[in-house]
Queue: 2 jobs
Job 1
Amino acid sequence: MKQSVTVSKSEEAKWLEGIKVVLSKLQFKTPTFNLKKIIVPVISIVAFIGIWYLGAEALRQREINFRVEKALTDQGQAAANALQACFASNESTCQTNTLPSPTQVWASVITLVNDYYVVKQDKLDFKNKTAAVNAKRIAAGKAPIVYTGRASFVDIVIRSLKTVFAGFLLAFFIAVPIGIVIGLSPTLRNAINWFIQIFKPVSPVVWYLLVFMIVKTLLIGTSSDNSFLISFISVGLCAMWATLVNTAVGVSTVDKDYINVAKVLKLGQLQKIFKIILPSSLPLIFTGLRITLSVAWMVLIAIELLAQSPGLGTFVWEEFQNGSSESNSKIIVAMFVIGIIGFLLDRFMLTIQNMVSFNKSEGI
C-alpha cells in the first residue's frame, strides 16, 4: 500500500519562500556594461570620424575655391574651368595640400604596410647576397657589411621605442636613487630644491643643446653616429623630474609608525629602505614613473628631429617638408601611432604598478 505524503500549509509556505530566495539569487542583472563600455565608445569613434571627414572636405573645398578663383583672376575662365575639372577628376597632379580625409589616411596606412614588406624583402635579399662575403670578413676579424638602405615605417617606430626606453631607464637610475636620498634627509632636500625647481621646466630643445655640447666634446675625433646617444640622454634628462619629485615626496611622507617599527626591529639603513620605505612609497614612485614615460614619449619627437635620429620625429619633419597630400596623410598616421603607443606605454606602467603595489589603480 502506498503511503501518502502530506505537507502542511506552513511547510509549503516555507518551501515557496526558499524557492523565491534561490530564484532571486539566480536572477541576472541587465548587461548595461555593453552600453557603457562598447556601444558608447563605438558611437564616439564614428562621430569623430564623421566630424573629421566633414571638416577635411570643407577645408579641401575652401582651398579648391581659392585656387580656382585665383586662376580665374590671373589666367581667365578657360584656365579656371580646366583647374576645376582637374580637381574633380582627383588626379595626383591636382591634389589639395590641407587636412587629409579618413579615406586618404587609411590609404597611407596600406601604403606604409606594403612598404614594410618591400623593405623586409630588400633586407633579406641583401643578407643572402652578402652572406658569403660577410662570413669571410668575420673570419678575418673584420666587421660585416650591413644593410644601409631605406628604413620602413615599422623600423622607424622601433628606433623611437628603443630611444624612449633607453631614456626612461636613464631617468629611472638617476631619479629614484636621488629621490630616496633627498627624501630621507630634509637638509639635502632643502639644499637641492632650488636645482630641481630651476631645471624641471627647461624645454627639451635646451636639454638637447646641452647634451649635444657635452657629448660632441667627449666623443670628439670619433666617426660614429652619436644621434641615438644624444637623443636618449636628452629624453632621460628632460623626463626624469616627475619621478625624482614623486620619489622624494613618497619617501619623506612614509608613516612614522612604520619608521618606529623599523627602529624597534633594529633594521639597518638598507633594510629600512627596502623593507619599509620603498614598499610604502611605491604608489607615488610609480605615478612619477608613469608621468616620466609619458613625457619621454612626448619630447622624443622634438629631440629626434633636432638630433637627426632616424625615428618618428625625423619622419614627421621630412614628410612635412615634402608637402604633398600623401605626406600629410602619413603625418596623421604617425600622429595616431604616437598616441596609441603612448596609451599602451601608460597601460604597461599601470599594470606593473598594480603587480608590485598594494594600492590597485585603474588609471584614467
Job 2
Amino acid sequence: MIKILELFGGIGAPRKALINLGVDHKSIDYVEWNAKAVRTYNAMFDNRYKPESVVCYNLQPDILVHGSPCQDFSIAGKQYGGNMEDGTRSSLLFETIKIIESLGVLKPKVVIWENVKNALSKKMVSAFNHYLSDMEALGYTNSYQVLDACDFGIPQAREGIFTVSLLGDKIFDFNRLRKSPMRQISDFLELEVDEKYIIKQPSMIRRLPDQPTLEGTFGGRMLEEVREYVNTITTKQMRCPNSGVIKVDNQRWRYLTER
C-alpha cells in the first residue's frame, strides 16, 4: 500500500487519480486552507477535515504531493514572485522543503510538485531553480515537464509544470506517461442548468461572442465560445477572460457549472 500526504490538497485530484487507476493507497493526511475546497474534498471522499495551514506541518508519507498556490507565479496575476524572501502565497512552496527536512531519514521516496507554466518564465524561474537546488540538497533527483490536460483525455486547454523528484539517483521518465485522445466537451456538459448560470450581467453580455467587438474597453477583450474544449477552468466564471461561455439558444448564453 502506498501512503500519500496531500499538501495544498484542493479537492483531492491526486487521490482521485489513484482511485481511478485502482492503486492500493492510503491518504495519511490532507492539508488545505480553503474552506470551499475542503468541503468539496470531504464530500468526495467522506472525510471530516477542517481548513488547515501547511506551516509547521509534520508527517511521514511515501509520496508527498504539493500543488502550492500559483497566484503569484501566474501570468494572470500580479507576478509578485515565489522566492522565500518574497513572502507571497507562492513562496509557500518552500514550506514543503522545511517539512521534508524535518522528516530526516523518513523522507518521502517521491515528491510531486505541480504549478502554472509561468513558473518557468524569465521573471519567475529563480524560485523554481531554488526549489530544484533545495531538493537536490535533500538527496532527490529532479525531472520536470510542461503537460497539457488535452493530452490526457480532458477537454481543457490547461498547461502546467509537473516536477517529479525521486529520492536517490533514479530519474522519472515522462515518456512513460500514457496519453489519451481528448474527449469532446459535449460529453461533459449538462443540457439543462439552473437559471443562475445564465449570463445576465450587462458587462458580460457586451463581451459575448455574438456582440460587436468592444473598442477601448478592457482591452477590447471578448468572451470565447466553448466548442471542442474549454480554456483553463477557474473558480470565478463571472469575469473576462474566463473558461469560455456556452450558447443555450439564440438569446441566451451560460457559464460552466461546478459539475
